[in-house]
Write a structure and sequence with these properties.
It is a single chain. It is built from six helices and 20 strands. By secondary structure, it is an alpha+beta fold. It has two domains: about 260 residues, Ribonuclease T2-like (Ribonuclease Rh, Chain A); about 110 residues. A six-stranded antiparallel beta sheet has the order 15-14-13-12-8-20, with no helix packed on it. Strand 4 and strand 5 form a beta hairpin.
Length: about 400
């Protein structure tokens, strides 16, 4: 399927007006794409990747079953994501660093999609309790690789509207795939003692759609399902057609455990405000204390706590705090978020997969310190969905960064 590669390009203003119909979702991608082949079924390259998903033409709606710690309702699987595969078992990832957002819940809320966000908070769960980071990961890794959701595919593009479309479509597909009910209809229900034949699980999940699925196990326990689709048109407005797996195989044994959800649900990241009293530096604390293990980075500015440092290293005053891991290093500690290791690069705090030389920070009077100084700076206090880069060079707004263990 190598002919799928290399044909990903944005639509320009000369794109035929007939393809930008008035009936659109979020004023978005083409509502109709005349004569567009089904993805993964073309015999020649299709240049219009706003109406044809390429190279990621096979879309996977993936689901989790987390039993301990449990996530989501006891009688429901949860959303993992929506992944574009290259029709041959391979896939691209992290396709657009400029659109790796760290404020998914704020983006969805700003679009007025409160119902979508409420649904995600119930059914799109992270087993470690950090839903926001999980959503960011799914968008950054998979959503940015869907060609028909490129900004250039929109007639009147509003920044980040494709993000809302991605999560809406993933949820819409999930709602049609009641995995718990599919299995229960064949007598396959969670049990602490009963095991089930892998082939019977496959049949129960394949029957409602008429095509096979891929099931995945961890330590012999059923914990993931991959449903495959080809798409005619764009991901946002096109038709999804059930498809066979593209080479991804089950890793489950012949006899599979399907355990009931048990234990204690993971706690969400803490957003509790710290004291509004700012303590002046009096000395350096023991390395890594209180910055050790997992926690969040609350920001204090103007004598009051206001928001957190989120996973990319920016200051954000609304939404969910990101979880960081502090690891002892030399006379201090390093910080790592879901985006990657953290460093002060070009005088700006950055956390990303591209960071190979993380900064060793210290703690002074329970505050984060860089080169022994606890003051950090931004041009102004961020509001709404705005994120503010955090600098170590003096600017109009001074802030300090604390630690809240999780």
């Amino acid at each position: 399927m190598s002919f799928y590669r290399g044909f990903r390009q944005a639509v320009t203003s000369s794109f035929s007006a007939a393809l930008i119909a008035s009936t659109t979702v979020f004023a978005g991608t083409p509502a109709s794409c005349p004569n567009t082949p089904l993805s993964c079924h073309n015999t020649t390259a299709v240049a219009d990747t706003c109406c044809f998903n390429a190279p990621g033409g096979l879309l996977l709606q993936t689901q989790f079953w987390d039993s301990d710690p449990p996530t989501g309702p006891n009688d429901s699987w949860t959303v993992h994501g929506l992944w574009p595969d290259n029709c041959d078992g391979t896939y691209e990832q992290y396709c657009d660093p400029n659109r790796q957002y760290t404020n998914i819940s704020a983006i969805i809320a700003a679009a007025g999609k409160t119902e979508l966000l409420t649904y995600m908070n119930k059914y799109w769960k992270d087993y470690q309790g950090d839903d926001e980071d999980f959503w960011e990961h799914e968008w950054d890794k998979h959503g940015t690789c869907i060609s028909t959701l490129e900004p250039g595919c929109y007639d009147k593009y509003t920044p980040q509207q494709e993000v809302v479309a991605y999560f809406q479509k993933a949820v819409d597909l999930y709602k049609t795939l009641d995995s718990y009910a599919f299995l229960a209809a064949k007598g396959i229900t969670p049990s602490p003692t009963t095991t089930y034949k892998s082939e019977n699980i496959q049949k129960a999940l394949a029957e409602p759609r008429g095509v096979q699925v891929t099931i995945r196990c961890s330590k012999g326990e059923l914990n993931e399902i991959w449903y495959f689709y080809n798409v005619k048109g764009s991901v946002e407005t096109g038709s999804f057609v059930p498809a066979e797996p593209d080479g991804a195989k089950s890793n489950c044994p012949a006899d599979v455990k399907y355990l009931p959800k048990m234990g204690t649900p993971p706690s969400p990241p803490s957003t509790t405000k710290t004291s509004s009293t700012r303590t002046p530096p009096t000395g350096t604390s023991t390395p890594g204390v209180p910055f050790s293990g997992r926690g969040t980075l609350p920001v204090t500015s103007g004598g009051a706590t206001n928001g957190c440092i989120i996973s990319g290293g920016t200051w954000y005053t609304t939404g969910t705090c990101a979880t960081y891991t502090a690891t002892a290093s030399g006379n201090g500690f390093t910080l790592t978020s879901s985006k990657g290791k953290c460093a002060v690069s070009n005088n700006v705090l950055t956390c990303a997969a591209t960071v190979t030389d993380p900064t060793v920070f210290t703690a002074v009077a329970d505050k984060l310190a860089y080169n022994g100084v606890t003051d950090f700076y931004t041009a102004s206090v961020p509001t709404g969905s705005v994120q503010a880069p955090v600098s170590v060079t003096q600017q109009a707004t001074t802030l300090s960064i604390g630690w809240k263990s999780s």
